[in-house]
Amino acid sequence: MINLQEAVLRGRLSTCLDVPRWIDSIVERAPYGSLDELLDVARTAADPLTREEVERALSHHARIGTRPSGAGVGDDIARPGSELLRDLRKRLDDNPEELKVIADELREVALLRMEQSFTEDG
User: Fold this and answer.
1) Which helix (H) or strand (E) holds 122?
2) How many domains does the chain have?
3) Is the pTM of this model over 0.85?
4) β-bridge partners, 2
5) What is the pLDDT of residues 74-106, one digit of tens each?
6) DSSP 8-class letter at 32
7) Are residues 4 and 12 in contact, defined by beta-carbon separation less than 8 angstroms?
8) Helix 6-16 vs helix 20-28: angle between axes, to the nearest 10 degrees?
């Protein structure tokens, strides 16, 4: 069973996909009898994501703008987060089909993160 305090649930969800409508939708249906039930609700709530939600999620995504680390990887190949977001927005404007692709990928990443985060509970 997944039965967390609302603030804890919201916090975990926001690290998976920072889209307030999505988070609200999941929190409204809590508690969950199983991880599968939670993931099903999350999957449905994230389909579809609007352009604004995709842009928000990308701008708050944990990996955007982080510099690579490790042997043999130089900081000079990392691109600033603002530059990546500008390029992604241009792709969205140039090709509306990109919105669906990016939204689908964000949803799948969120579900994977949720699976990792909420497995600890149960």
Assistant:
1) none
2) 1
3) no
4) 32
5) 343 445 556 666 776 676 666 778 888 888 988
6) B
7) yes
8) 140
pLDDT score recorded for residue 101: 87
Give the span between the Cα atoms of 103 and 99, in whole angstroms: 6
Nearest C-alpha neighbor of 5 from the set 23, 21, 27: 27
Classified as helix, coil or strand, 2 is strand
Amino acid type, 96: P
CATH of the domain at 103: 1.10.3330.10
Q: Report the 3 state secondary structure along 40-107.
A: HHHHHHCCCCCHHHHHHHHHCCCCCCCCCCCCCCCHHHCCCHHHHHHHHHHHHHHCHHHHHHHHHHHH
Task: For residue 52, give its domain range.
Answer: 6-119
What's the pLDDT tens digit per position in 25-53?
999 999 999 999 999 999 999 999 998 99
Q: Please give the backbone phi and psi of residue 32, each rounded to the nearest 5 degrees, phi first.
A: -115, 140
- Whole-angstrom distance, CA of residue 48 vs CA of residue 68: 31
1 in a structural domain: no
